[in-house]
C-alpha cells in the first residue's frame, strides 16, 4: 500500500460523489474519459407551430452506460429482489454465463438448471449484453475430459457440435469467446490445422450473425505475455481468422502500480486491432482499503482506454474468488469496500444528469456519457415532454427533436 501511495503520488479524498484519487495520472484519466466516453447532445424544442421554443428546461437523466459492466453469475443462485435499486447491482448492465456453460452442461433435471439461472438473471438485469463464456479451448484440460484423447475426425466433430450447442443456448447470448487459452496452447491448430479456426468462426457466425465472437486469453496484461499476445494476434490476422473482439481474463492486486498498469494498457491493449473486454476480473488487496483503492485505479484506467469496451467481474461474493478482499458484496448483500468504489464511480461520479435551458433557437446543448437516457422537457407553460433515447459515441452531436403537442399545452 505504501508503495502505491509513494509511486503514484495520490491521496484518498472523500467527496459527495465518490472516492477520488489524486495525481497527474488521475488528471490525465479524467481528460481521456471526457474525450472518449462522452459525446455531445443537441435537443431542439419546438412548439405546436414548428417554431423554436425558448426557455424550456431540458433534463437528460442517464439510465445506464453503454460501457459494459457485468459479472459472472453464480451457478446456484437466483437474483435478489429489487436488484436494480441495490448498490453494486444497479451498476450492472451485462451478465456472463461462464459458470453455467462449461463444455458439459449440468444435468437438465437439476433444480437450478443453467437455463433457469440465466433466464432469471436476464429478466432481472435486462442486460445490454449476455456473454456465453468460453466455447472451445486450445488447452485440452479446459474442454471436456476426453478432448485430448480424441482422434482428429472425432475432435473436429466434437468442436463443431460444441459450437452448435453454444450458439443455440437459450436464452440467447450476445457474445461468445469462441476460441480461448491460445497463447501457450494449440490444440486445434496442432490436431486440425489453422484452417479449422476460420471454419469455427464462420460456422458460429452463420448461425448467429448478430453476435460477436472473440479470442480469449489469460493474464496477458504483463510485459512478456503482452508481447506473446501481440504475436498470436498478428498470426491470426494474417490467416484472416474473423474474430470481433479479444477477451482478457486478469486478476489484479493492490500491490500493482497505477503508472505501470497504464503503460501496459497503452502499449499492449491500445494497439490491438479489435475492441477488448476484460473478463473474470478480480481486484483484491491485503486490506479492503487497498482493494478499494486499486478498484478505482483499474476502473479509471480501463474507462480512459478507448479500446476497452467493458469489464466482467469474476463474481459478487468472496466464495469462489482467488484474490483476497476481491468480493463486491458481503454474504448479507452489503457492498464491500471495492464494491462501494465501483458503485460510487459508475452510479454517481461517471453518470450524467444534466439540466439545460433552450435558447432562442430552441436549442439545448449538453455533453454527456454515452448510454441510455430519459429526457424530460419542462415547457414554459408547465407541460412536460418525456422520451427515451440512446446516445452513442459519434463525431457529430446526437440530435433529438422534441415538439410540443396539444397534450402538453
Q: Can you tell me about this structure?
A:
By secondary structure, the protein is α/β, with parallel strands linked by helices. It has 2 domains: 40-56 and 358-409, Immunoglobulin-like, CATH 2.60.40; 66-349, Glycosidases (TIM Barrel, Alpha-Beta Barrel). Helix content is 31%, strand content 27%. The chain contains 10 helices and 17 strands. It has helices at residues 2-8, 24-36, 114-125, 152-167, 187-192, 195-207, 223-238, 258-269, 288-304, 337-349, and strands spanning 13-14, 19-20, 38-46, 57-65, 68-72, 94-96, 129-137, 175-180, 212-218, 245-253, 276-284, 308-313, 353-357, 363-369, 371-378, 384-391, 398-403. The strands form 4 sheets. It has an 8-stranded parallel beta barrel with strand order 5-6-7-8-9-10-11-12, surrounded by 4 helices. A 4-stranded antiparallel sheet has the order 13-4-15-16, with no helix packed on it. Strands 14-3-17 form a 3-stranded mixed sheet. Strand 11, helix 9 (288-304) and strand 12 form a beta-alpha-beta unit. The model is unreliable at 1-19 (pLDDT under 50).
Compact description:
With 409 residues, the protein is of the alpha/beta class. It contains ten helices and 17 strands.
Query: How many domain modules?
Result: 2
* Low-confidence segments: 1-19
**Total number of strands:** 17
Helical content class = 25-40%
Q: Class by helix and strand content?
A: alpha/beta
User: How are helices and strands ordered from N to C?
Assistant: HEEHEEEEHEHEHHEHEHEHEHEEEEE
Q: Tell me, rounded to a whole number, the average pLDDT.
A: 90
Bin the strand percentage.
Answer: 25-35%
Backbone CA Rg = 23 Å
Shape: globular
| Assembly level | single chain
Number of helices: 10
First-to-last CA distance = 60 Å
- What CATH architecture of the largest domain would you give? Alpha-Beta Barrel
The CATH topology of the largest domain corresponds to TIM Barrel
CATH class label of the largest domain: Alpha Beta
Amino acid at each position: 500500500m505504501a508503495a502505491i501511495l509513494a509511486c503514484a503520488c495520490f491521496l484518498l479524498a472523500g467527496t459527495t460523489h465518490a472516492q477520488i484519487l489524486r495525481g497527474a495520472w488521475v488528471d490525465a484519466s479524467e481528460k481521456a474519459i471526457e474525450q472518449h466516453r462522452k459525446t455531445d447532445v443537441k435537443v431542439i424544442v419546438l412548439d405546436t407551430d414548428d417554431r423554436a421554443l425558448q426557455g424550456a428546461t431540458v433534463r437528460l437523466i442517464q439510465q445506464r452506460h453503454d460501457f459494459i459492466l457485468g459479472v459472472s453469475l453464480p451457478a446456484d443462485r437466483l437474483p435478489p429482489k429489487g436488484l436494480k435499486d441495490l448498490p453494486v447491482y444497479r451498476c450492472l448492465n451485462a451478465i456472463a454465463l461462464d459458470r453455467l456453460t462449461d463444455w458439459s452442461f449440468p444435468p437438465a433435471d437439476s433444480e437450478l438448471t443453467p437455463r433457469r439461472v440465466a433466464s432469471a438473471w436476464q429478466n432481472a438485469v435486462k442486460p445490454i449484453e449476455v456473454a456465453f463464456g468460453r466455447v472451445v479451448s486450445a488447452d485440452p484440460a479446459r474442454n471436456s475430459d476426453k478432448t485430448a484423447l480424441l482422434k482428429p475426425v472425432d475432435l473436429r466433430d466434437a468442436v463443431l457440435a460444441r459450437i452448435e450447442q453454444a450458439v443455440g443456448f437459450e436464452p440467447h447470448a450476445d457474445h461468445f469467446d469462441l476460441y480461448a487459452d491460445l497463447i501457450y496452447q494449440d490444440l486445434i491448430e496442432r490436431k486440425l490445422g489453422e484452417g479449422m479456426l476460420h471454419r469455427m468462426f464462420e460456422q458460429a457466425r452463420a448461425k448467429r450473425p448478430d453476435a460477436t465472437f472473440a479470442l480469449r486469453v489469460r493474464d496477458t496484461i504483463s510485459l512478456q505475455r503482452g508481447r506473446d499476445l501481440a504475436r498470436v494476434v498478428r498470426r491470426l490476422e494474417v490467416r484472416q481468422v474473423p474474430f470481433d473482439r479479444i477477451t482478457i481474463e486478469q486478476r489484479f492486486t493492490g500491490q500493482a502500480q497505477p503508472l505501470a498498469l497504464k503503460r501496459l494498457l497503452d502499449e499492449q491493449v491500445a494497439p490491438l486491432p479489435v475492441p477488448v473486454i476484460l473478463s473474470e476480473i478480480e481486484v483484491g488487496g491485503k486490506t479492503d482499503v487497498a482493494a478499494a483503492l486499486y478498484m478505482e485505479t483499474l476502473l479509471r484506467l480501463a474507462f480512459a482506454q478507448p479500446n476497452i469496451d467493458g469489464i466482467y467481474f469474476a463474481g459478487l461474493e468472496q466464495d469462489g474468488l482467488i484474490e483476497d478482499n476481491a468480493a463486491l458484496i458481503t454474504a448479507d448483500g452489503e457492498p464491500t469496500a471495492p464494491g462501494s468504489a465501483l458503485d460510487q464511480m459508475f452510479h454517481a461520479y461517471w453518470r450524467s444528469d444534466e439540466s439545460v435551458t433552450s435558447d432562442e433557437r430552441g436549442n439545448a446543448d449538453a455533453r454527456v456519457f454515452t448510454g441510455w437516457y430519459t429526457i424530460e422537457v419542462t415547457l414554459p407553460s408547465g407541460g412536460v415532454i418525456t422520451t427515451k433515447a440512446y446516445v452513442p459515441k459519434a463525431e457529430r452531436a446526437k440530435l433529438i427533436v422534441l415538439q410540443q403537442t396539444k397534450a402538453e399545452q
